[in-house]
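Notes from the pairing session

We agreed to fold both candidates in a single pass and log them together. This is the raw record for the first candidate, unedited. Please don't reformat it; downstream parsing expects exactly this layout.

Candidate A
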Amino acid sequence: MNATSPNTPTTKSGVSMSDNMNAFQNAVAQFDEAAKIIGLTENQINLIKEPQKITIAKIPIRRDNGDIAIFTGLRVQHSSARGPAKGGIRFHPNVSLDEVKALAFWMTFKCAVANIPMGGAKGGVIVDPKALSPHELESLSRRYILEFSDVIGPDRDIPAPDVNTNAQIMAWMMDTFSLNKGDYLPAVITGKPIEIGGSLGRKEATSRGVFINVKMMAQHLGWTLTEKSAAVQGFGNVGSYAALFLHEAGVAVKGIADISGGYITEKKEGLNIPAMLEWVGDHGTLEGYTELGVTSPDDPMSVLEMDVDILVPAALENQITTSNAHHIKATLIAEGANGPITPNADHILFERGVHIIPDILCNSGGVTVSYLEWVQNRMGYYWTEEKVNEEMSEIMTRAINEVLKVSLARKISLRMAAFVVAIQRVLKASEIRGMYL
């Protein structure tokens, strides 16, 4: 990180912060602040802060017209101190090493705060998957897992779907890995189709985890959810189901935003979330959606500043910055996305008394059910959806209670408390294992 300039804000701990930092710098700023709270030594920081392995590979495929195209693939394993690394694979033209490093970093501490016996990893390919034919997409998926087969495995590193990847792509990857190892190895990948070892409840897991966190915080704050309102930025898999769970709990969801714009209502009962989900299922986005009493489309960013009790940013990173942090009216923010609030904006909101359920805790329902899928694969015994949701709810409830306890005891934000809990777990495992010389 660059030295602090006179115009660069700092936290109370003296950690410099800027809205212009990339994803990895943001992640490191959060770590550094928590490390100061804990009082980590330089040796302890060196032991757990940096990624343990970065692998970059050129991935060739033959296009349908016979040409050969070469793409860059990445896999970053941040930590395996507490168990095999875990993290998704994204296909996107803007994939970068810094982004993948940040996501792997967050996964380490996301698993640790939930007390899942896994570490953090992330992967990606720099590609626009929409420019590939179905056959080319399959070729790229299979070749990716082949190129990284020496660093991936059921006891080493377990990928999952992420941006622009899905259950079918995971099926191709699992099949390729299994064929090359000469075994049937469903535990090498999670987020698979149910027919080949996927877990029931996986699709809604991240959103269900967000809702569990909101419900637990509501209890802590003495709220009755049926008296509260909410806005959700992002209406993909995470945002849409988070909105549905809030709606079903009696929360008036008064604002929704997706790539087509913002949809806002003043109606007491809020938006018709089931109807919006049905529209997206038929049309792909909310574009063209109309509902009596709804203003649409509005600026998607306007949803963030709505006068509601609960805000769920479930779209992209760096959506709440120093430029709009003072305009946020919600009392409780539940981070459905990774890194939606910049470190400096986070500090502003905490000073204003806004409660933020941090991403490494709030959206860890997805990795929790991925872990449960891995457990089922290893046992060869598969659970009902009710059983999966029960196990996930128990893990998530325990995690937020532990974070709340630390937050209150140390008088620190929930984010810092989550990092304190997670860092201490990763550090303890690393120190117990020691160093192989």
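Candidate B (folded immediately after A)
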Amino acid sequence: MPELRPDRIHEVQAPRELPLLQRLSPWVLMWNHTGLRKTVVLLCLAALWESYARWLDNTLLFPTLSETMQAWWSGVLDGQILLATWSSVQVLLKGYLSGMLCAGLFTAFASATRMGSDVLETLTAMFNPLPSIALLPLAMIWFGLGEGSIVFVLIHAVLWAVALNTHAGFRSVSTTWRMVGQNYGLSPLGYVLRILIPGAFPSILTGLKIGWAFAWRTLIAAELVFGASSGQGGLGWYIFQHKNMLDVPNVFAGLLTVILFGLLVENLIFKAIEKRTVVRWGMQN
């Protein structure tokens, strides 16, 4: 057996002991919960609201949170806020779904041809910066004093954000995914459903969120300007009526309802979709 050369002999060092992981305290575990952190933020904002309103001591300018909650609960019990919310939601769903349908058609046309892509990019650059509420006077001339004019401005609010994000998402799908779909011999519809939409879904979901936010605030603004439709008004009309009566706590109650509904949609609907899709697929942390 050949002798080992001294310069080739190395001492094997024993592995260093890794420090034991410290057990996280219950406070740290609770603080790592996203819902708890957001609740703390909301409680801080509520305390700031109450403190500022009590310091100002002028209900006509800024009612306290307790007065607003009392007015909100009274509006819930007598059904006014619930009816106004339901009226707004009905119109919102019509405009939002119609805007999504139009965005899907525009995106399909833009994805099929270069000319379609140029048309979509040009129209988006023209109309996306245009505030939807600015089209309300024209919509009232074209569609009359009815629900159709509000639905028209809602379609404008949703269409460009959803179409632009969906088209950008389709273009960002990796070449590897596209080649896999082609190698499997998928039909055009199967290629879109199994390759393009899953690959572009983070961008699509972002467009849906932006479109929803644009549609919700445009609806409230349109109801403030437009008023009631068919004898029934939404949350914007509820706020406008109580402003005319100088009933400021109910004005803030209407605004609080708008905020609460936005939080409900964001944290229950969109968060659930996000967890079941992009987070589950490993496309987002």
